Amino acid sequence: MPGRVTHERLMREALHLAEENVQDGGGPFGAVVAKDGDLLARGANRVTPAADPTAHAEIVAIRRACQALDDFSLDGCALYASCEPCPMCLGAVYWARLDALYYAATQDDAARAGFDDAFIYDELATPPTERQLRTEHMMAEKGKRPFETWRAHEGRVEY
Amino acid sequence: MPGRVTHERLMREALHLAEENVQDGGGPFGAVVAKDGDLLARGANRVTPAADPTAHAEIVAIRRACQALDDFSLDGCALYASCEPCPMCLGAVYWARLDALYYAATQDDAARAGFDDAFIYDELATPPTERQLRTEHMMAEKGKRPFETWRAHEGRVEY
Q1: CA–CA separation, A36 vs A3, rounded Å?
Q2: CB pair distance less than 8 Å for A48 and B157
Q3: Which of A64, B47, B83, B125 lies at 20 to 30 Å from B55 by C-alpha?
Q4: What is the pLDDT along chain B (159 residues), one digit of tens a residue?
Q5: With an 8 Å Cβ cutoff, are A103 and B71 in contact?
Q6: Closest-CA distance of chain B to residue A108, Å
């Protein structure tokens, strides 16, 4: 297991990426993915310059780490994020099967800087049709068919 | 506002993408983004073939719609997803500022096909240090600095 010095070195890199990214036209967020204490991939928030609302630092770092390993699983890896992840990024952490998450700034720090994801956390905890987001469940029976096709498909790669 | 016939046509396209994607080596999920009833972008789940855990159908469709509009905001657009979005994709729906979400299959349908995101929803609703994911808050003071740099940066693009 990586020790305290390694954790701090990796977090300092995530924070450096966040600082540098502000000057580079992006948001104040950075992240790195590491395996056994070795840096695998870096990411910074490129939402506005890349016109991509999913280009949060954590998502960028996770995608690059997966490219580096040519694997959709980051089992055995850790994510170091300059700030506590939003629900989108935290969801990605689970889908990527990361072993551990380290973060420095909190949701409250981010909210004070104008990045408030408390609303999103609240919405996710609300039943779909009661959310502020207009949401409609439709074609419920036809919706099951892709799963039937999936279960019948012998070449499927489960994950 | 698009009427019922338009909603069903767009959802049928999302379901067609999901079915087709199974034969094409991906997962049984499809999504489209539309504006005023016109299709803007398509997406299908490419997690295993692209080795990208974030390549869910909704994320792929959102990124492509943003590229098509050259805008990080999909204000005025709607997402049609073959299945109720996972927390990662639902977070992306909010960040993309989509106006509406339509879905066909439910979380329960997905779980029966082996795609269980209830665990992720539960984890997100749990305080960070009590989650099953190993999580550590560190370097709290240094973590605030990127936000100070951001607030002092006159050229910042807020979103």
Answers
A1: 10
A2: yes
A3: B125
A4: 688 899 999 999 999 999 999 999 999 999 999 999 999 999 999 999 999 999 999 999 999 999 999 999 999 999 999 999 999 999 999 999 999 999 999 999 999 999 988 899 999 999 998 999 999 999 999 999 999 999 999 888 888
A5: no
A6: 10
Q: For residue B11, what are the CA distances in angstroms to A62, A121, B132, B142?
A: 30, 27, 36, 47
Find tokens 């990214």 and name the residue: A21
Token pair of B130 as six digits: 């009590």
| A57 three-state secondary structure | helix
Give the torsion sign (CA, A126, A82, A116, B43): negative
B87/A82 CB distance under 8 A = no
Please determine, for the modelled complex, whether the ipTM score is greater than 0.85. Answer: yes
Q: How far apart are CA A129 and CA A126, in angstroms?
A: 8
Amino acid found at A155: G
pTM of full prediction above 0.95: yes
- Identify whether the C-beta of residue A58 lies closer than 8 Å to the C-beta of residue A46: no
Q: Residue A47: list chain B partners with CB under 8 A.
A: 72, 95, 159
Phi, psi of A105 (to 5 degrees): -70, 160
Please report, for chain A, how many H helices and E strands are present, in that order. 7, 5
Q: Which of A8, A19, A144 is the best residue to mutate to test the B interface, defined by the most B CB atoms within 10 Å of its own CB?
A: A144
